[in-house]
Amino acid sequence: MKLQKAPILHLFKLEVDPKNHDKLIQSMLDAHLDQNALFMQSGHEDEAGHKNYAVECFQDDTQYQKRLNSEEYQAFLKASDKLLTEKVDVELQPEFISTKPDKLNVSGENDYVVYMTEIGVQLGKGDEFANGVLKEMKAAVEKEVGIMVMIAGTVMNQPNEWLSLEVYQNKDAYQKHLETKHFKRYLVATKFCVESKGLHLLKSDFVSDQGQIFYRP
Q1: How many Cα atoms are found within 13 Å in the side-chain-facing hemisphere of 35?
Q2: pLDDT tens figures, 115-131
Q3: Which of 12, 100, 188, 200 has the fewest CB atoms in 10 Å of its CB?
Q4: What SS3 string covers 88-130?
Q5: Quick check: is 156 in a domain?
Q6: pLDDT of residue 56
Q7: How many domains does the chain have?
Q8: CA angle (68, 164, 174) in 5-degree steps
Q9: At what angle do helices 126-143 and 181-189 cross, to 10 degrees?
Q10: Residue 164: inside a domain, yes or no?
Q11: Tell me, what's the pLDDT at 104?
Q12: pTM exceeding the 0.90 threshold for the entire prediction
């Protein structure tokens, strides 16, 4: 599905007592049974499952509101109030979204390698960074079989704060990505643009993808 208008894109940072991690994921899976989302992914950063990150994408505000008002989501809110110790909802301005043609609905143990990167771009370097990262992402999804998902966005009203989500089929696919010419060109092209960088390796808890989603402004 090639999107003509910017979809709704959110990042959730969720903290939970490790003993409640499995309950949190199950409540999220129950809530994600609705079909309004184009894409959803959740993973945890630390082994215990204390820090969790979820990315959700909806085609438009109508679908997003249906999601918020659904019985499944309301049940999740009640459950999460008892489980979460912290919740941060970050609205993103989509800059690039591309997923593979095949639909995905995977939970539990899997081989996916997920990286979420938070990048602070120097003032005055926004266009230069955007040009470099978007060229790299486009080349990556076109040339690399092992890339399942590439998503990039900027924090709403903070265009110099970037976030990217990358889902690879397995470790080998990720290692091959690091050796590609387009990735190395991206590093050189954006070397003097990046002010800060936080790289989060996530263990995927689930990923749901309607398949063949593409958006670029």
Answers
A1: 3
A2: 999 999 999 999 999 99
A3: 188
A4: EEEEEEEEEEEECCCCEEEECCCCCEEEEEEEEECCCCHHHHH
A5: yes
A6: 94
A7: 1
A8: 120
A9: 180
A10: yes
A11: 87
A12: yes
Which pair of tokens denotes residue 80? 């999460």
Q: What is the pLDDT of residue 42?
A: 94
Burial class (CB in 10 A: 0-12, 13-18, 19+), 191: exposed
Q: What is the DSSP string of 33-94?
A: TSS-EEEEEEEESSTTS-EEEEEEEESSHHHHHHHHHSHHHHHHHHHHHHHEEEEEEEEEEE
pLDDT at res. 199: 94
Residue range 171-182: mean pLDDT, rounded: 96
In a domain, 213, yes or no: no
Structure-block tokens of residue 1: 């599905």
Token pair belonging to 149: 């998902």
Strands 194-209, 147-155: pairing is: unpaired
Which phi and psi angles does 31 have, rounded to 5°? -70, -25
- How long, in residues, is the chain? 217
Supply the CATH number for residue 151's domain.
Answer: 3.30.70.100
Please, what is the Cα angle at 57 between 56 and 63, to 5 degrees? 110
Q: Is residue 216 part of a domain?
A: no
pLDDT for 34? 58
* Domain with 204 in it: 8-208
The contacts of residue 86 (CB under 8 Å, 6+ apart) are 13, 14, 15
How far, CA to CA in Å, does 87 sit from each of 41, 44, 119, 156?
Answer: 16, 14, 21, 18
Contact 42, 53 (CB under 8 A): yes
